[in-house]
Amino acid sequence: MELNPEVIIHAARLGEVAVLEEIINKGGEVNVQDEKGYSPLIIACYNNHPEAAALLLNAGADINASDFGGNTALMGASFKGYRPIVQMLIDRGADLNLQHGNGGTALMFAAMFGRNEIVELLVESGADYSLVDSRGMTAKDLAIQQGNEFAVKYLSALESTF
């Protein structure tokens, strides 16, 4: 069944679980992308709608899908600091080390924007803190640049045991 992709994107943005269920039950595509490449899952996660995200994942949404810049649902949730969504994505097998177009990772976003609980969660779940972006910067380098003292100390301690 051909449904307007904007409808599922809009429902995901608002976290309208009942509308999403109806769209899915009518055969709506859960992996459509809008003009920027955002999928319903990316939109639901970025807007802090864990129930909508879980529904989309259960319906077959690609957990590692990226927008046209290479950003994933995990990156968006890490950037925003939505721990329950980050935990759900980790539990469901999201790739912790995917890099977007400039080489950034979910861990880098969390470190840059002071999402320290997410920094710990990602590292404890296996995120590679040694990855570098297109400028040669690690998550620790970005934390230094942004003045995130917690992440700097935490990541430095990990490096000293490396």
N- to C-terminal distance = 53 Å
Number of strands: 0
Q: If helices are DSSP runs of H or I spanning 4 or more residues, what is the number of helices? A: 10
Main beta-sheet strand count, sense and barrel state: none
Round the mean pLDDT to the nearest integer and report it: 95
Query: What characteristic shape results from the CA principal axes?
Result: elongated
Work out the radius of gyration: 16 Å
Order of helices and strands: HHHHHHHHHH
Features:
single chain, 162 residues, mainly alpha
Describe the protein.
The structure is a single chain. With 162 residues, the protein is an all-alpha fold. It is 54% helix and 0% strand. It contains ten helices and no strands. The protein has helices at residues 5-14, 17-25, 40-46, 50-58, 73-80, 83-91, 106-112, 116-124, 139-146, 149-160.
Q: Which secondary structure elements does this structure contain, and how are they paired or packed?
A:
Layout: H1 5-14, H2 17-25, H3 40-46, H4 50-58, H5 73-80, H6 83-91, H7 106-112, H8 116-124, H9 139-146, H10 149-160
Helix pairs in contact: 1-2, 1-3, 2-4, 3-4, 3-5, 5-6, 5-7, 6-8, 7-8, 7-9, 9-10
Short précis:
Helix content is 54%, strand content 0%.
